[in-house]
Amino acid sequence: MGLRKTLFSPVLICLSFPALAGDFTLSSGADYSRGDYGEAVTSETWYVPVIGKYESGALTYKLTVPWLRITNPSVGPDGVPLAGDCDRIESGLGDTVASVDYAVLEGGDGGTLLVDLVGKVKLPTGDEDHCLGTGKTDFSGQIDVTQGLGPVTGFATLGWKKFGDPDNTDFRDPLFASLGLVTRLAPATSIGLAYDWREKVVSEGDEIQELTLFLTQRLSPEWRVQLYALAGFSDASPDSGGGLLLSRRF
Known about the structure:
This protein has 250 residues and is mainly β. The protein has helices spanning 2-5, 10-16, and strands at 23-35, 43-56, 59-71, 89-93, 96-105, 113-123, 138-149, 152-162, 175-186, 189-198, 208-218, 223-232, 240-249. The longest helix has 7 residues, at 10-16. 38% of the residues are buried.
């Protein structure tokens, strides 16, 4: 889940760029992960997204279009088993994700509590025959909560995902959750830790369990960079991973 999940928490956005009405942010980076996912061979995945985000009042719209390169594909970037007649190395356009975020509670002047409702749809733009996607549309909804705790800020997510089922499959529709802490090391630098969990998607599969350590650095009022490292603790998660995301606000 790594880059596709943890690093886009509202708390990280708030600590990096103060929210302004009508903001547009363009981001890109690279996410690398590797693991055997319970198989006899190790799979490696490069995930390179282009992300557009527009904020207008209480609403935030986001579109993520990724490029993928997968070695020995067996599990997709979201921890979902992939089917298809795949070569040892597959690359190309991945599944596109669109989301809408509504800020239910923004804390007010001096407030420390943020509550957001988020809806997402994953569009099947990745080629399922080459193990770059499941070929089906997925939907999810979640609530994000951020709370200031003195010098530390806590954040949590609780959500549910509705998977589209490829032929001859019956994916479960899982709950997922995240819990983390972040603090400032300097006015432009923050560091944090997040734990991600998701129910199993197939009966013989495993839950997702991942721990991510991240660093966010504001380079200027317009530029920021995020670096992170990830460790997985189940066969549905990569054994290890990491990456960076560079963002420019307009």
